[in-house]
Amino acid sequence: MAESHFDEWIAERFHLLWPELFEPGVVEPAVELLADLAGTGSALEFGIGTGRIAVPLSHRGVRVQGIELSAAMVAQLRAQRDTSNIDVTIGDFATTKVDGSFSLVYLLRNTITNLITQDEQVEAFRNAAAHLESGGRFVIENYVPELRRLPAGETIHVFTATPTHLGFENYDTANKTAISHHYWVIDGQLKQFSTTHRYVWPAELDLMARMAGLILAHRWGGWDREAFTGDSRSHISVWEKAV
User: Fold this and answer.
1) Residue 23 half-sphere exposure, CB side, CA atoms within 13 Å?
2) Quick one: which of 1, 55, 157, 237 could link to 51 by a disulfide (CB 3.0–4.6 Å)?
């Protein structure tokens, strides 16, 4: 069972802690692509959080439902206007079921790595496939593990460093995990937040998809559908359920 680290303190400050996630240049291309993939069908977001993507996607006319482990994050979604039409079920997206079938299931912003065992990640793919209609698509946005950027013998990679936010990962290659550490200066006080993740390569995700009856349809280097290359630091992957 996955554990939620997003308590009330984090949920209430989510926009403040990760402002880059809410920039129009980040949100709008994601919503555009997801709306295109959903077509005239419904969408299910695994790890819907505060509705960063689900809310604008619903404003595009897509019927959106969500699964979310953190009740505090859902409370922030509910505090926004025009969200009563977004049904959210509290639970672990690897195992929680909702009614209906969907043309699109999506899991964004590295959230697959919140599941810290391979078995849980496999179950997430199986759960996505179980919710998809024939021809439906499962989308994951995830980072490419930064191992090649580590100097020989080192385990720590700094992924953000600003005057108010320091973030770095400590890799454990023997166990395929990385502990993500964040330090923020907020109102003159230092706040620390750490979470464990199981990093995963695109090829391993493809194998998990095949085990769930899904086939890779697209892999892009970003939401504008740019090519995925050896230099890409993240990917948007789309798997399809057979008709």
Assistant:
1) 7
2) 55
Element (H, E) at 64: strand 64-68
Tell me the CB-side half-sphere exposure of residue 76, using CA atoms within 13 A: 20
CA 239 to mean position of chain CA atoms = 15
Residue with tokens 């009563």: 84
On the 0-12 / 13-18 / 19+ scale of CB atoms within 10 A, 217 is: middle
Pairing of strands 132-143, 234-241: antiparallel
Chain centre distance of CA 201 = 15
Residue 42 burial (CB count, 10 A): 19
- Residue pair 116/197 in contact (Cβ under 8 Å)? The answer is yes
* pLDDT-based confidence at residue 151 (cuts at 50, 70, 90): confident
Q: What is the pLDDT of residue 6?
A: 86
- The structure's pTM equals 0.94
